[in-house]
Amino acid sequence: MTSEITKQGLIIKAQSGFFTVETGEGLVICQLRGKLKQGRAHGDIAALGDHVTITLLEDGSGVVENVEERKQALVRLDPRPQGEYQQVLLANADQVIFVFACAHPNPKLRMLDRFLVIAEKQKIPIIIIANKIDLVENAEDIFGLYENIGYRVIYTSAKLEKGLDELRNVLKNKISALAGPSGVGKSSLLNALQPGLGLAVNEISKVMNKGRHTTVTRQMFPLEGGGYVADTPGWKSLALWDTEAAEMDAYFPELRDLVPHCQFSDCTHVHEPGCAVLAALQAEKIYPERYESYLRLRAGQE
Fold first, then answer.
1. CA–CA distance, 221 with 233 (Å, rounded to integer)
2. Is the full-model pTM beyond 0.70?
């Protein structure tokens, strides 16, 4: 009788209860060990980006024995008849890359602000891509405010081959979640970085966007320089479901440093006397459009 071989690996693809695990020595298609599925699960037991221990079987497939604790996860709430269930879009992302176009389509900065709050709450490092800079005279006029409040912004154009080296360097050896509205040029950008990558990502994205009754494949794509990129559509339905209004200021970097200076510990930054945020707004030290985003998100509006 041969002894069982166990290996450590990373889940790079998940589809219908089957997980493709990269072990460093090749890919192994695995299913969960029965004991992991015992009891009622309130969320995905194993997901894209999880680090796992597997046992190799004689036929070359494997069994997931253990899923390591996640440092964080991008989670979408799936309301089911038997109660809320947390779908994990991507576990253990090293960073999230938000791609927005400077024009065609015009950037929806309120949407970007919402995405930023989600990533801030998960404590995931953030990079903003201002794409299609060839379509505007000065992209910094649109996205410069995010640099001023501390976010890294990379200005790119696949057409002009601008910003590609910088983007390639930030992706290297990292697990990166990619997100952004349709039409912003993600596929062209990825194809410019690595031929065929944008097409592959786009095919998975189309399937994921077709709805809950479609067999959903979640997949990370390897980068030639090391690392993985995972398209994560569905951010519109992500994440503010467990966020209280009173904590929203913590996810706006330019507001959270002001909060301790407010006169009242439960200040909403809407009307209270002695509010450091309102004073900064009056003094033009914070951007009014960002403050408006804070008010809308605090009120539960999109």
1. 15
2. yes
